[in-house]
Amino acid sequence: MDLKERLSELKKDALAEITNVDDLKKINDIRVKLLGKKGPITEVLRGMRDVPADQRPRIGSFANTVRDELTRALAARKEKLEIIKTAKKLEKEKIDVTLPGVAVKVGQPHIIEQVIAQIEKLFLGMGYQIVDGPEIEEDHYNFEMMNLPKDHPARDMQDTFYITDQILMRTQTSPVQARTMEKHDFTKGPLKMISPGKVYRRDTDDATHSHQFHQVEGLVIDKHVTMADLKGTLQTLARTIFGEKREIRLRPSYFPFTEPSVEVDVSCFKCDGQGCAVCKQTGWIEVLGAGMVHPNVLKMAGIDADVYGGFAFGLGPDRFAMLKYGVDDIREFYLNDVRFLQQFSQKG
Amino acid sequence: MKVSTKWLSDYITLEIAPQELAEKIERTAVEVDEVTRMSTGLKKIVVGFTKEVTQHPESDHLHLCQVDVGEAEPLQIICGAPNITAGKKVIVALPNSRIAGNVKIKRGKLRGELSEGMICSLQEIGFAEGVVPKEFAEGIYFLPDDAHVGEPVFDYLGMNEDVIDLDVTPNRADMLSMRGTAYELAAIYNKKLTLHHPAPMTENPAEVSAYIKPTAAPELASTYLMRVIKDVTVKPSPQWLQTRLWNAGIRPTNNLVDVTNYILLDYGQPLHAFDQDKLVGKNIQVRLAKPGEKLITLDEQERELRTTDIVIADEAGPVALAGTMGGLRTAVGPNTTTVVLESAVFDSSAIRKTARRHNLHSEASMRFERGINRATVAEALDAAAQLIAQLGDGTVVGGRAVATKEEVNSVSVAISLKKINDVLGTKLSMETVKDIFTRLDFTVSVSAAGQFEVQIPPHRWDISIPADLIEEVARIYGYDNLPATLPKGELTPGHYTYKQSVLRAARRLLEEAGLTQAISYGLTTHEKAAQFMMEASEETKLAFPMSSDRTTVRMNLISGLLDDIAYNTARKVNNVALYEQGRVFYRSAGNVRPREVEHLAGAMTGLFRNDTWYGAKQPVDFYLLKGIVEHLLNSLGVKDVQFKTATGHEEMHPGRTADIYAADKFLGFLGEVHPNICKEYALKATYVFELDLQQIIELPKKQAVYTPVSRYPEITRDVALAVDQEVENAAIVDFINAKSGKYLVNVELFDVYEGAHIAPGKKSLAYKLTYQDENTTLSDEVVTADFEKVMTKVKSEFNAEIR
Ligand SMILES: [Zn+2]
């Protein structure tokens, strides 16, 4: 057997040994054994003396190839064994991923607050200011400035908690508008505002009535504001709250502080206008009241009704929330059962 | 206002399905509550004739009736009504018929006798109790004698009429009458009206003065007219009249009362009938009540009159509260033969006050309050007088007695086409607008300058200014036809004020800390309103509360939160963390209106975290809530917050409450609710805080300025100090901070120990002191020197022992 054959034989045996080793620690032993100074390759190469000189480079080169091949095989086997070792380790670390995660403890904004925030965001984006005002009001601002003098028949429409003859729990947030109109400097631009807040009515609490609820009233006063602008604004509002596909329709109504006055219906978001229990089979749901500001209201606030005009609207976040989330009892909002409050946690 | 389409057809030909008509009214004029037809759902209910009525052999109150229903043989029907009698036309529900409430009537046996159907009362076929004539209220109904046996009863009773119930808004009182509604529909559908008017009367106008001589102050009654009808026989009204009344929701009574109600519905003109024989003297006076005068009204209530009540008085005193309710003494009754009929216009605000004060809201008072058609006061009176004479076989005495009579003219309102289009955002033409006015029965002329001069007839007394005309144009033109645009004026910025953003940020911070927002009631009890108060205040109470639970405006938020927690724990929800942001109302003596202050409060009970598979439960306690408050105040930029042991809160645990200050301003408090208060609310241990957000808004805030992060390492020293129980952590921390050199950057308490390994009455507080220099690496020697110097001082200051 010549040297080359011996090397080939050696390579074959060594590769078999490397393939069979399954212990990482033994890899190094094999490397030393095969490739070390006392290893068989060195041994074989020692026999080069007996090889004719012209054949020595060929054998030498072959021996190097075998050495390289074995080195690569050892490295590959080592890598493989390391992967297996890691895999075994990780397998032992297996956990039950179906166990519950660590709960993040957060509270929720009240659902009415969420509805108000949504409305505020829309109107801030359209350049409205948000104005707050007193919950305990003067009759003057709550009624008289709203074109509801004492003894006006329409005062029957709102039962009022009076504190004295002149002081009352506000029944609407429109007195905030009256106060703001009085102060607004029209040389600095139009008045565009919404006034969200709590209001009170002398009602007995039941599923659909609450002596305390919320309102958001809006007002725009400028030189050229039209009823078409009101319609467009309310359409935008309806679509923001109830969905892109919503249509609105206006019906004649009566509020002392607007003329014309309208009720606003939105196409039913449950049935898309086909008729269902929510819309009482009409396809439409009454959601708010609105109108063009009555000239008397402007005059009382010291605004020239021949030059300026505008629109106003008022809506109930409680009613919006009831409609939107299918809440069938308004009292739920004020009992603050955490199992109720925490249902409305979806953001975005 | 219940409007029968059949009655309407006397005045206008529409031929429109009632549902469609209702929809149109709703989109153009006023809301519609419902559209009804009484016969809907009923079947096989026919006219029967009681040929024979005999006692049921087995019962003393049931009768066996042989009833002709137009078939070959009469039916035997058992009837228990007390007024059953032979020879009457009755309402018969045949076998397999359906009566009100979807009840099916079957052939059956009653105490051994066959009963083939049922003889019905009006209620049993769907009439409301309130419209059934009194004489039939307790029994079956008798149809007119000329009713045809075997025919369905519905047409005889007006039950096939469609009735549209209008919800008339206060501004559209013109639609509180059949004629007013007819005018409106004529405008909507562009139709001609055919109104009927009473026949002209050929009479001697002086005759009436032999009976009555009315006088009135024009400011109380701008028009006051009377007529007298003599030789009248009081009896039930004919079927057609009864039908019209009950379909309008009014109970038929007798021919006198029914005619006044009929004219009220037809013209919207309230009338009142007096019995001439019961009036004392001829002089009838419309005047204000005199001090001490009383009147027993038709409902048999004695009413003390005030000097603002308008009364009708005869020579013996008041006989009616004008426009509101008549008096019992002069009421018409079964024996009345001479009727004095009043038709008038009373001062609306006086009527409103009287109606409110006496709680007498009638069909009449409602119309006087909202206004009536002043052009038909006399016509309505004449129509009523003629009908009473006709139905009561009497005679109208010649002449109207006139106390006052105002001139009634059209009102003129001017408006330009431009104004209409400017307000509506439309491009309507002159012709379109003119056509709308004409349809509304307005007379229009156009001035040279292009102004509309619009003459408004008296039946639309609600219209007096240009805005009214714009509304008329808008609704008749149709709101659906308006374009939808957005305002195009000068741009304005939309942003929260600083205060608004603080309120919202505070809410978000507490939510992130695990508290859920509650909205409680602003009105509460007298006791709860005044609990947990942060400053002295008078209470503010409702003048007329609805219930004892809601009498007083709150002066704290915590009591509302405790109510909320009690509601939860009563429902076995034991772990509750709520906060509320809202106003409290402080009032100083002498002021009527309170000051409204934005507050923020939180309340927690039970566990903050439940036991879980990975960790132990965390009960709510003082320090948990304190951490939340600290985080809140820090995040809001409040500087130098101090928590001081507080003892002055009656409702709080005296040893577990802290007052919160910043820059010497009192911001609020936090702590454990006093066990006695917890007991009152039925609560377990509960921790609360309340803060004055207005104070926080007004405080100067930390300015966020970049400070370079030191690149040099920190050095720390730990120390455990044994001190007396009474020594407060804050005092030690403040002292260490004050006495240390400039390299001390932080003092942190990391352990508190009391127990076996420390002397009784002592506690151990362990601190980590952190030192750092911005410019260089500190040496251990420098730190040690500073640390030991300070510790020596701490030992003597707090009698502390370093452990
Ligand atoms: Zn629907």
CATH superfamily heading of the largest domain in chain A: Bira Bifunctional Protein, Domain 2
Radius of gyration based on Cα positions of chain A? 42 Å
Radius of gyration of chain B: 41 Å
> Which stretches of chain A are poorly predicted, pLDDT < 50 over at least 5 residues?
none
- SS field, number of helical segments of chain B: 19
Q: Please bin the fraction of helical residues of chain B.
A: 25-40%
Using a beta-carbon cutoff below 8 angstroms, give the protein chain pair with the largest interface and the number of residues from each chain.
Answer: A-B, 86 and 95 residues
Based on Cα principal axes, name the global outline of chain B: elongated
What's the multimeric state?
A: heterodimer
The largest beta-sheet of chain A arranges its strands as 1-4-5-9-8-7-6
Q: Which second-level CATH architecture of the largest domain in chain B applies?
A: 2-Layer Sandwich
Which hetero compounds are present in the coordinates? zinc ion
Q: How many structural domains in the coordinates of chain A? A: 2
Share of helix of chain A, binned: 40-55%
Query: What would you say the CATH architecture of the largest domain in chain A is?
Result: 2-Layer Sandwich
Largest sheet of chain B: 7 strands, antiparallel
Tell me the span between the first and last alpha carbons of chain B: 90 Å
Subunit structure (chain B): Tetramer of two alpha and two beta subunits.
Keywords (chain B): Aminoacyl-tRNA synthetase, ATP-binding, Cytoplasm, Ligase, Magnesium, Metal-binding, Nucleotide-binding, Protein biosynthesis, RNA-binding, tRNA-binding
Subcellular location (chain B): Cytoplasm
InterPro entries (chain B): aa-tRNA-synth_II/BPL/LPL, B3/B4_tRNA-bd, DNA-bd_dom_put_sf, Fdx_antiC-bd, Fdx_antiC-bd_sf, NA-bd_OB-fold, Phe-tRNA-ligase_IIc_bsu, Phe-tRNA-ligase_IIc_bsu_bact
